[in-house]
Every structure is written in C-alpha cells, then in structure tokens.
Design goal:
There is one protein chain. This protein has two domains: 84 residues, Aminopeptidase (3-Layer(aba) Sandwich); 131 residues, 3-Layer(aba) Sandwich (Aminopeptidase), CATH 3.40.630. Helices cover 22% and strands 36% of the residues. It is built from five helices and eleven strands. The protein has an eight-stranded mixed β-sheet.
C-alpha cells in the first residue's frame, strides 16, 4: 500500500493522531478541526466503529476508493469524485508574482472562514488552521486568497484550502501560494500532495503545471448516521 492510500486513516494514526479520536477500526478529527474521518476499510465493522465517534446529527467526510455504499442506517449527504495529486520530486519550481504573502494566525480565523464559505474549497472549520501553516494575500486589508497545509503523515503534507475571492481571480495568487507551500514542504524533506474535484479542469491544469501528477481517482463522501 502506498502511504497516500487511505490517507485520512494514515494521518490520524500517525502525525495527526493528537488532533482526533479513534475507536477500534475508525478515527476522525475533532469536529471543530474538520469533518474528515476514515477507517481501516469500509466494512460493517468500520462503519460501526465510526458511528461511536459521531454525535447525533454529526457528519463525517470520507475519502473512498469506490462510490459510497454505507450499511443501512447511514445517509450519503454528498458525493464528489476527487483526484489525488502528488508532486514529482524533479519538477521545476514555478515563478510567482510579487503579491505580499503573510502567514495567517488565530486573529485571521474569521476572515479565513468567510473566504472559504464564499469559495468552498473544501471543509474548513474554526480550528482547521491548527493542522499546519496557512498563508494569505490581502488587498485593502481584505483577505482575498489563501492556502495552507491540512493532512500530514510521515514524509507527506497535503496542500489544501486553495482559494481566491471571485473578484480577484486571474492574478496568479493561487500559483504564488501553492508554490510557497511546495517549497516549504520540500525543504523539510517531504512531498506535497493535494486533492481537487475531478471536474475542476482549470485547477487540475494549474496543478499539473506546478509539477503535480494524478494518482487514482477517489470518492469524497459526506455521510451521516440515522438521518
């Protein structure tokens, strides 16, 4: 098995175990960090273990190898095909623009939540920032672009929450932020990877130009118990 196979489960059983909780064959991040969870395999035992970790009405986000087919009593709230992409070690760095980039801290969380709510790059909660380093670009004191680190496991770090305010597209802000994160991750001897909707051709093209290559197609499913 490649380290990035079943990556949420791998992260929660290694570098990010302190950010979540586990019961038998399942694990999940604390819900104020994000809704991601996983299990050793999508079996009845896996789903039963996950149900113990969920509060009534709480949802879990899973990365699955096949379309979701949970046992009776579960509801698939949403399902999106998702590409996992891994940066090649020998890919050349990409040029960036001169936009001033700042590291985002706790006081920036309300602006980060507002930007991710508007642009919907993926699940983002009030403590997601604690998963890694996040960087942003401001225009007239408004946060208009950001990106950061999410899933982490030995030798690999995920780039996530890549988003730009729709009024500020086309300036290369995403390229600047992703390139900065790539360089930081690789300077630690790790490899950057990311996830992107399979139908987001513009983003897939950008990441391929930045040296990322496609891995197997995943299925991102949001599920809930008993609704």
């Amino acid at each position: 098995m490649h380290p990035l196979d079943n990556v949420i489960w791998q992260a929660l059983n290694s570098s990010q175990a302190h950010l979540g909780e586990r019961h038998q064959q399942a694990a999940k991040f604390h819900k104020d960090i994000n809704l991601l969870g996983g299990f050793a395999e999508p079996s009845r035992e896996g789903y039963d273990s996950l149900s113990v970790l969920l509060d009534p009405g709480e949802r879990a986000g899973l990365f699955l190898e096949a379309p979701p087919q949970p046992p009776r009593g579960w509801t698939v709230v949403a399902h999106v095909p998702l590409l996992q992409m891994l940066r090649e070690n020998d890919a050349a760095p990409s040029p960036t623009n001169n936009a001033p980039v700042v590291q985002l801290c706790e006081p920036d969380v309300p602006d980060m939540l507002a930007l991710t709510k508007l642009t919907k790059p993926g699940p983002f909660a009030k403590r997601t920032r604690e998963m890694g380093d996040y960087f942003g670009i401001h225009v007239n004191r408004e946060l208009i672009a950001m990106a950061g680190e999410r899933l982490r496991l030995p030798s690999y770090t995920e780039i996530s929450a890549v988003c730009t305010h729709p009024d500020h597209l086309g300036h290369g802000y995403a390229t600047t932020l992703v390139t900065l994160l790539m360089q930081r991750i690789e300077s630690r001897g790790e490899r950057p990877f990311l996830h992107v909707r399979a139908d987001n051709a513009r983003a897939v093209d950008l990441y391929e130009r930045l040296g990322f290559r496609k891995r197997p197609l995943l299925h991102y499913a949001i599920i809930s118990k008993g609704t």
